[in-house]
TrEMBL record:
Annotated protein name in UniProt: DUF6470 family protein
InterPro entries on file: DUF6470 (IPR045527)
Database matches in Pfam families: DUF6470
Superkingdom of origin organism: Bacteria
Length: 184
């Protein structure tokens, strides 16, 4: 005895998907830029320094005097010597006038004039230290700077964007099927 059988054969549906990817392109043109820097203005005002050197005293100590200075010094020296001489004569005259004191004025004056005191001798440097007078008056510098800001002109460029849409195609590649057989 044979038992009837049912045979089923099935086939699944297959879907096909085809895609085209989207494309995007972005380009950025360079910006246009112009930069200029104006020169700064600078003014410098300078008063020069002043150096003064006075060698008058050094030259005079060396004996190289101006006529005015030479005349002045000789006049003062002559006046001083004349005053000393007059003073000496007056002193000697007063001593002679006082002969009644019992002092031999002539002998005393002869002894004094015959043996004068030794001259005062010292070492002296010519010209003396610091006889040259130096004076410096420093100068003054005024600096005035006027800065200028840079001039910047910039023009930005917009980006160039292109976009191509993608595509998706869905199709049925294989249909589904069911096949049934009866076998006896």
């Amino acid at each position: 005895m044979q038992i009837p059988q049912i045979r089923m054969q099935s086939q699944f549906a297959k879907i096909a998907i085809n895609t085209t990817p989207a494309r995007q392109s972005i380009q950025q043109p360079q910006a246009e830029m112009h930069i200029s820097q104006p020169k700064a203005e600078m003014r410098i005002k300078q008063n020069p320094g002043r150096l003064t050197i006075d060698q008058t005293q050094a030259w005079e100590e060396l004996g190289l005097k101006s006529m005015k200075s030479f005349t002045r010094d000789n006049t003062q020296k002559a006046y001083r010597k004349a005053s000393e001489a007059i003073s000496k004569i007056v002193t000697d005259g007063n001593e002679m006038m006082n002969f009644h004191n019992g002092v031999n004025a002539y002998a005393e004056q002869a002894r004094r004039h015959a043996n004068p005191p030794p001259p005062d001798v010292n070492i002296r440097y010519i010209p003396s230290p610091f006889s040259v007078k130096v004076h410096y008056q420093r100068g003054k510098v005024d600096i005035n700077v006027q800065t200028r800001q840079p001039i910047i002109n910039a023009q930005a460029s917009k980006p160039i964007i292109s976009y191509q849409l993608g595509d998706v195609n869905v199709s049925l590649q294989q249909k589904n099927s069911l096949h049934i057989d009866f076998v006896k």
